[in-house]
Structure formats: structure tokens, C-alpha cells
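Hi R.,

Here's the chain you asked about this morning:
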Amino acid sequence: MEFAFERQLDYPLFDSHAHYNDSKFDEGRDLIIPALLAGNIKYIVNAGTNLESCAECIALSEKYEQLYAAVGIHPSDVNPDDDIEDVMDKLRILLSHDKVRALGEIGLDYHYDEPSRDVQQKWFIRQLELAREVKMPVVIHDRDAHGDVMDILRDFPEVTGVFHSFSASAEIARQLVNKGWYISFTGVITFKNAARLAEIVPTIPLDRVIIETDCPYLAPVPFRGKLNHSGLMEYTAMRAAELYGISVEEFCRHAFENSKRFYGIQ
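And here is the predicted structure, written out as C-alpha cells:
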């Protein structure tokens, strides 16, 4: 497994959304994570997508002090045959772990329409109810479903969180920020075909912007298409700083403190 990069920045970084439990890291996970944490990657949050991966994320958080977890059922991982209340009971237990800092990633994904939209919506609503019950922030996955995600969230004004790998409009971002949400960007903002998204980045107030890898996916340019990891996030930070017209140091300071605040890490 390839894991080589030249570090560009000395500023502390917080990878707010990763998947180091993914099988793509099986060959070198125990080498990569310590190497990253020994550098300028100070914290990583791994997000679960089903009960099995949630347990894996918690296990990683127990192994490394600087790793935390978010647990939830991803819309593409919903099994319509599962007993939703049984799954919620199991999630409720996982959410009580002291290294779990959010419920996610949850939401809607209409890219393939599988499972069906009504099933996805049912599970999304039930997990928002759980978030409201346990008073946890949420990590939202929204792919090609912006209107329905926003319509459902309007029924949960008590629930806030972060839109991970943001891909909606500037107007949706504005509405979310006004309601206390955070907006998170990935390496996609470095892509040449992401001009519209790049225009949205500097419209986000600096106290509401977060960056992430979503690794092993969405590696930034010049590593697009390769295995992504937290060490490459500095390219996303440099591009974001350029879009804001501020120094990389200033952007990294804001993104780092925002991530700590969102996840409740002192």
C-alpha cells in the first residue's frame, strides 16, 4: 500500500471525517495512523456507516488517544429488513461510549436510489429522533437529496451538526449556518471540475468551516484517484485558504478550533 507524501505545513490539522476502518487500510493501518499522529495531524474522527463499522471505529478510538468516533447508519447501508428499533437500541448503547462524539454519518443518498427513498427517509428521521433524545450533534451525508434533507431537518430544530463533504448550494449553506450548523469540505474543492463548490467555500463564516478527508476516498489534487489519508488534507487546507484570501496558518487555526468545538474536544 502506497503511503508516501511530502509534508507541506507545520500547522495542526484535525481530520473531522475519515474511515480508517475501511479495508483499503488493512495492509498498513497500524503504520499509517501512528505516523500521521506523530506529525501535524492532532485529531481524527472516524465515522461509522453500519453497526459493524461503528464498532470498528470505536475500537480504533480506544487504541489511539487522538482518535474519536461518530456512529450511525449510512443511508446506503440501511437494510429494510432490519428491526429499526433494535438497531436504534444498539446505536443508543454505542453513543454512550466516551470516545463517540456525534451520531453519523446519517442522511439521504439518491444517487442510486437504493434502498428506496421512503426507506432511507424513515431511517433518517428515526436517527434524528435518537439524536434529539440523547442530545447529540449529527454528521449528515447528503448526496443528490438536498431538498428532502432540508425538509426533514426543518422538523428537528433542536438538532444541529455538520454537513460532511458539502455539495449543496450557497443558499442551503447560508440557511444551515444561520441555524448553527457547520459546513465541511473535502479534497473535492481542489478539483478543476468543482468551480461551483469552490465559489461557495469563502461564503462560509470562518467560525463554521471544517475540513476532512473522507479517506480513503476523495484525495485532493495532485493525488486525485489515489488512496487518500489525513496527511493529504493540507492540500485541501491550502486551497481553502487561497479561496478565502487569507494565510494558510489563519485558515488552519479556524478549521482546527471549529472541529474541536464541534466534537467537544478540549
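One quick note: The two ends are 34 Å apart (CA to CA).

Cheers,
M.
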